[in-house]
Amino acid sequence: MNHVPDGASAGPLDMLLDVRGIAISFGGLSAVRDFSLHMPSGALYGLIGPNGAGKTTVFNLLTGVYRTETGSIAVRGRRVDALKPHQIATAGLARTFQNIRLFGHLSVLDNVRVACHLRGRHGLAGTLLRLGHHVAQERSITRRARDLLAMFGLSDREDHQARHLSYGDQRRLEIARALATEPKVLLLDEPAAGMNAQEKVDLAGLIRRIRDERGLAILLIEHDMGLVMNVCQRITVLEYGAVIAEGEPTDIQKNPRVIEAYLGTPVELPAGWEV
Amino acid sequence: MDDSNNLAPTRSAVLRNVTLPVAGAVALGLLMQLVVGPASGPYATRLMLDVGVAIIAAVSLNIINGYTGQFSVGHAAFIAAGGYVAGSFTYYCSLLWWGEYAKHGGFLGMGEWLFFCSCLLGGFGAAALGWLVGLPSLRLRGDYLAIVTLGFGEILRVLLQNTNRQIFDAEQLRDATWRQLVPPPLGGAQGFSDVPKYTNLFWMYLMVAVTLFVAVRLKISSTGRAFLSIREDEIAAEAMGVDITRLKVRAFIVAAFFAGIAGGLFAHQSGTVIRPIDAGFQRSFEIVIMVVLGGLGSISGVTLAAVILTLLPALLLDFAQYRMILYALLLILLMIFRPQGLLGVKELWDFARPWRRGGTRT
Fold this sequence. Notes:
The structure holds 2 protein chains of 2 kinds. Chain A is an alpha/beta fold. Chain A has helices at residues 55-62, 85-91, 108-116, 124-129, 132-151, 167-180, 197-214, 225-231, 249-254, 256-263; strands at residues 17-26, 29-39, 44-48, 70-75, 78-79, 93-95, 185-189, 217-221, 234-239, 242-247. Chain A has a 6-stranded mixed β-sheet with strand order 6-7-8-3-9-10, with helices on both faces. A 4-stranded antiparallel β-sheet of chain A has the order 2-1-4-5, covered by helices on one side. In chain B, helix 1 packs across helix 11 (281-294), helix 7 (201-219) runs antiparallel to helix 10 (244-267) and helix 8 crosses helix 10 (244-267). The longest helix of chain B has 57 residues, at 11-67. In chain B, 68% of the residues lie in helices and 0% in strands.
């Protein structure tokens, strides 16, 4: 399905992810409004904004945790905004979670194998009688899971319970698990949180590698500006649920609206106040 | 899945994966029936039958509560449903075919095959109910699901109390009017009695083996991992493409099926009358205690707990009136010192063979 040419010149029909004007409000609070995004294959975009701007809410809208009130979401040209979360995952949209949501009591290997589940058929008869196709499928799942763990440097810990991993390893395992669903679009929610400087550098390389090898479109929420400016081709900035800027990293850095959102506006101090 | 390294279902694979386990189950049944039973006398045999029912009940409830993490406290209702379906089927078929409800034929004779079919029927009946109860569990979580399953057990109990009187005579059965047959003649509040006593150690432990076998195979498969992922984190499971709706219902159906079989075996046991109260919450809680005490999700732990908790009251018989106090005390102590259950989420073989912790046998 990789007929999409790389680069931003692709038309709207070639988009892996095509989001138009989605919105949601909780009670009277408009959490996200009129959010649009178009990602071709190979795109590596960033989504930033101050705390509470609605970044994770956008992810929840895209993955079907919340239903959008307006607009549309399409993955590879297929509308997904009315589907359930597991159907959206099957359509090719995978995510990681900001507050790590691994299957804590399951082994590292099983965490990844669970995510391989959706690309197969798992009848009761095949499972209980261990029919040939079932055995072959389980084998291929295990092999794929091991390949992913190797890619993320987690092979030697495949028997550990996920909750016993270090923080950085847990973040990597989340990405490995998301990749096991064989997505076309990958949403990473603060993948570098809690990582040290070296781990962040490695992570940046890994994210680029995944994108290049698999032709994915990757959308990244991240607070580490160094990482975002370094790896992202384009950046969307949210504040109070609205997009206030959109463009290339160098433009975003200079954008006065963005600086204002992060740092606030200078105020006239009353006479006699000292700073 | 179309993959290289694909192995065709060879004859030896079928032998290993299907024939051998079935043969093992039959062998266990025969061993219990022909060797262990006669060697240990009627009282011990009776206890072993009780243990068998408890194992099947607890291991099947473990599929809902332990694997999938849905808190069901209505398991006794599935058992009672299976018991009523199986017991009444055997009873009325015997009346119609053989004119009497006494046992027909010896070991593995016609009567026992009728009994076997009844148990399967009881399983399917309970599975249908499991599907019905599984549906609300799609929308409810935690306490709310517990309340629904509890209510389901009570509803079934009241329904059973209001069934028609049992018919004790073949002639009466043939001449029965609609009024006697609707609602079904299941004995009302007095319970359903005189079910032919077919349950023996062979059938009991055959079914115990099958239940354990299914529980293990489920757990170490893709389906089992998906069950466990629901227990661990529903939102993450959904995001990874696990259809939690379908799998929860599937867990309820499989668990209820085996509960129904346990009920069938219980109904045909000598000395039991199945009563509406068997569907009530007291029996349900006993099974929940076995699962929690054994360790949610641990097949071997739950089996162990089922054995211990069934034998304990019998062993404490000498302490007469202090029996229930001691029983409760032991439970409290266990919950203080092993809150995660006897084995936690582990299996016995995890302790024996640490290098296989990943469960990667496939």
